[in-house]
Write a sequence for this structure.
């Protein structure tokens, strides 16, 4: 009897711990969202618009006159609210990194220097507590990015909902990641927690190794049926056919130029600069070579003492005005990825006058860079129904209150740890105890 009671107490205790909501079930009936302001994601806005989707695919986008089979459709009136395509977070470690101080929860970095065969895809943790928190600000897609070494491995584009990585993946192995050996290297002093720059003495050696590796990979890619299969070189095959991007982490202007020249020389079809803190110094070169840029988070201080204090805020507008395809990311601060829409909001206040153009930085531009713009990034007929409804402007932290979210047509549960903690402490501190109880 004591054992039975103890078992019941254990089960009751376990059930008291809140868990992430279960992934949404597949869409079984058509859904229509009517009366809201539709932000297409390509600069177009439809007031009092209608979006209809069925079996995970958008079937109609238009104004209030768009026909709806109301007898067989779940209709939601979203008048006064805003409808957006799902926001996309590129260059992210969400799902690969949970608790920074617990090594067992970190799966974004592999041992070794040349890890082209590493796939971030299989390490993506759909049970991460962070994922629901970013979903609640409209981030419905994330690019799981590896790091470490010189060649880090392959990234994949993931939905922020799914039982496992097989369920969550939108596009597997979309590109390879390269940490460019720059002229300067950063050193961190653990004694006083200061950072300093010094000349990278190992740079020439690292570039020589890269040239040999890419030359081998290019020769290997010309083989129709390689036997035996070289996993490291096989993973690089798509770089020379254009089926995969080469994401190059580079910040200084000189490094950006050299990295792009290297990629072109090696026959890489689609280089993408990631980070790009000094990309404003090489705008003409980027434009001439048609190279897109995924910027690191813009809520930071300038990288140089002689830069304008608001240069990070202005940078997306500078690049976009020059005709460069640009996107925004939170590469090293996975827990802050929920704030991605507000980076675009900042850009809208510093050089991008049209908020719909700022929205592109985290929707259609990201989708185009990663090669999934035929599936997501805008609200158009034939694309996946990955979208969300906000009470107000999604780029404004004061009004972005996500009330509904759909991923491939699945109605996603918007519960998360932040909301549970809010309710917990609202209950604790939200009600004053009577004086008699205090005594």
């Amino acid at each position: 009897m004591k054992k039975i009671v103890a078992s019941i107490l254990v089960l009751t205790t376990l059930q008291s711990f809140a868990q992430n909501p279960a992934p949404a079930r597949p869409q079984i009936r058509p859904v229509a969202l009517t009366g809201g302001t539709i932000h297409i994601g390509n600069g177009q806005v439809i007031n009092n618009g209608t979006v209809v989707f069925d079996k995970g695919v958008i079937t109609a986008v238009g104004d209030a006159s768009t026909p709806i089979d109301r007898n067989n459709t779940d209709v939601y009136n979203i008048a006064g609210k805003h409808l957006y395509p799902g926001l996309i977070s590129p260059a992210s470690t969400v799902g690969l990194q949970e608790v920074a101080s617990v090594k067992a929860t970190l799966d974004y970095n592999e041992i070794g220097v040349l890890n082209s065969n590493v796939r971030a895809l299989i390490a993506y943790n759909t049970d991460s507590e962070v994922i629901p928190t970013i979903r609640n600000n409209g981030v419905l897609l994330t690019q799981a990015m590896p790091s470490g070494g010189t060649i880090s491995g392959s990234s994949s584009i993931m939905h922020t909902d799914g039982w496992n990585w097989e369920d969550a993946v939108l596009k597997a192995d979309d590109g390879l990641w390269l940490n460019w050996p720059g002229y300067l290297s950063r050193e961190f002093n653990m004694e006083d927690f200061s950072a300093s720059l010094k000349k990278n003495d190992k740079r020439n050696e690292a570039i020589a190794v890269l040239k040999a590796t890419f030359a081998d990979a290019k020769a290997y890619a010309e083989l129709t049926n390689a036997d035996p299969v070289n996993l490291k070189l096989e993973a690089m095959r798509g770089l020379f056919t254009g089926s995969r991007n080469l994401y190059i982490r580079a910040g200084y202007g000189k490094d950006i130029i050299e990295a792009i020249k290297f990629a072109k020389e090696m026959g890489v079809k689609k280089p993408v600069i990631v980070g790009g803190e000094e990309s404003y110094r090489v705008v003409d070169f980027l434009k001439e070579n048609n190279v897109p840029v995924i910027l690191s988070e813009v809520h930071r201080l300038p990288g140089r003492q002689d830069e304008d204090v608001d240069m990070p805020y202005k940078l997306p507008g500078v690049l976009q005005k020059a005709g460069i395809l640009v996107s925004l990311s939170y590469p090293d601060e996975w827990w802050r990825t929920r704030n991605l829409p507000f980076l675009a909001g900042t850009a809208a206040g510093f050089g991008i006058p049209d908020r719909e153009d700022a929205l592109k930085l985290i929707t259609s531009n990201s989708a185009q860079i990663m090669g999934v713009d035929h599936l997501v990034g805008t609200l158009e007929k034939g694309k996946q129904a990955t979208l969300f409804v906000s009470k107000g402007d999604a780029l404004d932290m004061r009004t972005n209150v996500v009330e509904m979210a759909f991923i491939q047509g699945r109605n996603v549960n918007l519960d998360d740890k932040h909301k549970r903690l809010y309710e917990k402490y609202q209950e604790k501190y939200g009600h004053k105890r009577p004086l008699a109880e205090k005594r």
